[in-house]
Amino acid sequence: MGEFDLIKQFFVREQGQSGVVMGIGDDCAVLAPTPGMQWLISTDMLVEGRHFLSTVAPERLGHKALAVNLSDLAACGAKPRALTLALALPRTDAAWLAGFSKGLFALADAHGIQLVGGDTTQGPLNISITVMGEAPAGTALLRSGAKPGDDIYVSGNLGDARLALEVFRGSIGLPGEQFEQVRWAMECPQPRVALGQALRGVASSAVDVSDGLIGDLGHILQRSAVGASLDVDLLPCSAVLAAQPQALRRECGLAGGDDYELVFTAAPERRAAVQRASEQSATPVTRIGRVEAAPGLRLLDQEGQVLLQDFSSFDHFKSS
Ligand code: ADP
Ligand code: MG
Q1: Which residues surround ligand 2, an ion (CB under 5 A)?
Q2: N or C: where does the chain have the smaller number of CB atoms within 10 Å of the terminal CB?
Q3: Distance CA 9, CA 25 (A)
Q4: What are phi and psi of 117, to 5 degrees?
Q5: How many A from CA of 9 to the centre of ligand 2?
Q6: First vs last Cα of the chain: how many Å apart?
Q7: What is the mean pLDDT of each run of 10 residues along the chain (320 residues)?
Q8: Which residues, listed in sequence order, are joined to residue 207 by a DSSP beta bridge?
Q9: Rounded Cα distance, 314 and 312, in Å
Q10: Nearest Cα to Cα of residue 126 among 116, 134, 118
Q11: Segment holding 49, helix H or strand E
């Protein structure tokens, strides 16, 4: 199968979305901006062995490749509009492509967005997606707006993806049903797109958790030139993770990564508005700490004691 047949068979679909003047098939996609909106654009690449395991089902991989990109739009409060897909494939595997495109399009359809272009080449498996979204001019949520006194929140649960990874690594074991549950969290993250949009005008800053809570919250602190305290024992987690020993629970919650939840800050006067955003988007949120003027991140336990463990966020360039 040639490159063009492959694109036609697996990636060209009915072009009907409003605002897409030209989708797949020309040298460029042509998109019409909605008046009064700004574009938000983000790219994430997935490399086999580093961002996903070869054991993942192609359909789940298609989902995840788009989900991690939509999570970036969510963190900025953007409404998704379109995506492009750059694929390097070791060979043309029709069953793999059918599964991958099925997972990708199911999530794209759920968010009403269209695949408008891309590139396909032979090479080691590599998936790079660019998403385009919109937000009313000046309303995008950024990492830089946190102020001393703001509350810190996180959506959903943290740590399940890391727990699943530890099972794959063989460092812990879980009963089958529990493993399937955390494996689903790792392979099928649900980007918090509705929550992100509901938080426009409410949150003072936001980031999505891809590399672990400590590291990603650290980006907010750095860009906002503030510090923070986190109540480690308030971190929301699944029943599966809650049943694990405290040290593992804390490590997965604080430094796990691959969660794709939103961490955001908001002034204490906005607590009711945060609650409304949570309800509107049917997404649970938990208050887990405070922004402070003193630089650095302090991890507090239930008694308010400072924990001294050294939690370093997962770092792609660290040898591990
Ligand atoms: P060019 O050589 O001009 O870059 P290509 O021949 O690579 O264009 O691609 C032809 C058309 O197919 C373009 O519109 C491109 O955006 C689209 N395309 C290529 N690969 C993909 C893909 N994996 N998914 C979606 N569209 C693709
Ligand atoms: Mg090309």
Answers
A1: 119
A2: C
A3: 13
A4: 170, -175
A5: 17
A6: 39
A7: 88 83 94 96 94 91 98 98 97 96 98 96 96 98 98 98 95 96 97 98 98 96 97 96 95 94 98 98 98 95 76 46
A8: 263
A9: 6
A10: 118
A11: none
